[in-house]
Amino acid sequence: MHIWITGGLGFIGRALSNALLAKNHRVTAVGRRANPEPILHPAFGYISADTTRSGEWQETLREADVVFNLAGVSIFNRWNAKNKQRIRDSRILPTRNLVEALPGDRQGLLFCSASAV
């Protein structure tokens, strides 16, 4: 299967990516960082994108069998008004963009969204 993960190199995402790769799945991770520490595996790919905005990254969803949405900035910051808004936006906007980009003609496509707040 081709598994597509926003936040695929984050705290939970990296563990999920490695577990799926160990089960011989192909994994595409999407994240904000331009040059993250990659997972060195031939079935692993990375796309650097701001998922809070629509963009070319949405086209790559067409290849996925399963989509995990783990997007979101760290909650380990001072919870002032600015950071709370960043936390909300980093979860709500990517989810909205993912749902809009999911191919409606794909039978059996699984979408799982999780958020740590």
Shape: globular
The amount of beta strand, in percent, is 15-25%
Biggest beta sheet summary: 5 strands, parallel
Average pLDDT confidence is: 92
Q: How would you portray this structure in words?
A:
The protein contains two helices and five strands, in the order E-H-E-E-E-H-E. The protein has helices at residues 11-22, 81-101, and strands spanning 2-6, 26-31, 44-48, 66-69, 110-113. A five-stranded parallel beta sheet has the order 3-2-1-4-5, sandwiched between helices. The chain is globular, with a radius of gyration of 14 Å. The model has no long low-confidence stretch (mean pLDDT 92).
Write a short abstract of this structure.
By secondary structure, the protein is an alpha/beta fold. 28% of the residues lie in helices and 21% in strands.
Give a quick set of tags describing it.
2 helices, alpha/beta, 117 residues, 5-stranded parallel beta sheet, single chain, 21% strand
Question: Which SSEs are present, and which pair or pack?
Answer:
Layout: E1 2-6, H1 11-22, E2 26-31, E3 44-48, E4 66-69, H2 81-101, E5 110-113
Parallel strand pairs: 1-2, 1-4, 2-3, 4-5
